[in-house]
Each structure stands twice: as structure tokens, then as C-alpha cells.
Amino acid sequence: MLNLRGRAASVLRASRRVPPGVLRSCLLVAVMTVAGFAQTGADLESGAVLRVGAKLKCKCGCGQTMACQMPGGCALCKTNRTKIYQMQQAGMSDQQIMDRFVAENGPEIVVIPPGVGGVLGPYIALGLGLIAVLYTIRRYMAKKPALAGAAGAAPGEAIDPATLEQIEKDMAKFD
Fold first, then answer.
1. Each residue of 18-74: pLDDT tens digit?
2. Residue 49 falls within a domain, yes or no?
3. Which of 128, 85, 121, 83 lies closest to 105 in space, CA to CA?
């Protein structure tokens, strides 16, 4: 306990030797640094930054764009969104920013949105599958033609006399 008091007292004595202007400057730098990070944190999620980020792939391997909102945040996306924000503040257009990223990382960084076939493909497959299922159900639900001579057969149709005689012989064996 005495050792802690002794250290605290030595720190206090050392701080008295530092001129007050230096302490104020250090405090001001610390406050401005925190304020600077707080300000850019909100700006990194702005619509303009996310609009450009949505056109660029993240290189961390997550398979998403730089506009991703991963829980915990992707450090690489945050760094690149900071670059995007700084370029926008410097007055660069969206195309100029994308060109800079392509020059630095190669053309594979650009996200290619799916065409009409890519968007409509799943819906077309779903529709064709539904048609196939309905066709199959309808085919199995169709009425089968009635057997000749069975109950409900068309009038005037008779059973073949030879078949009727064979049935009678087989039935006589069971008696």
C-alpha cells in the first residue's frame, strides 16, 4: 500500500515540473483525436460512402461488398471506407474512386451486378417447377377408363362367355 502511495506521489511531483501549456496541449490533442474518430465513424456509414462501397468487393474473403454491415465490423472494409470517404472529401467522383481502387487492387475488385437472366432465373425455374408439379398431379388425378363388364360399365357390353364359364368353374372349386 505504501509503495502505491509513493508512486502516486512521484507521478504528481513529476507533473508539477511540466509546464501547464504542454499539459493543456496534450489534453487538447487527445480530445481532438477522439472527436475526429467519432466524426468519421458516422461518416463511414453515410449513403455516399456505402454507394461506392457497394460496387467494390471486400478482399478479406467474406464474399461481400465493402458496404457490408458485418457484426463486429470488418477491419479491411472499414479501412477502405475511410479511403473512400477521404477521396470524396477531396472532391473525387464515384468513377474516379473506383478507377483508383481498380488501379491499386486489379479489376477483380469491381462487383459485377447480375444481368436480367441472373435476377429472373430463380423465378423462371420456380414457375417451370410449379407447372411440372401441376401437370403431374393432373395426370394422376385423371379418371381411368372402366373395365369392360365391370360394375358401371357401359350398357350393352357383355362379358365374354368363355371367360364367364372359366370364372364359374373356378368358383365351383371353392364350394
1. 666 776 777 777 777 765 555 455 566 777 888 888 888 888 777 788 877 766 667
2. yes
3. 83
**Contact (Cβ atoms closer than 8 angstroms) between residue 102 and residue 59:** no
What is the pTM (predicted TM-score) of this model? Answer: 0.45
Whether residue 60 lies inside any domain: the answer is yes
Residue 146 phi, psi (nearest 5): -70, 145
CA proximity to 42, closest of 94, 88, 78: 78
**Per-residue buried b or exposed e for 6-30, using 16+ beta carbons within 10 Å of the residue's own CB:** eeeeeeeeeeeeeeeeeeeeeeeee
Domain extent, residue 70, equals 11-109
Distance CA 33, CA 25 (A): 12
Task: Please tell me the total count of domains within the chain.
Answer: 1
CATH number of the domain enclosing 22: 1.10.8.640
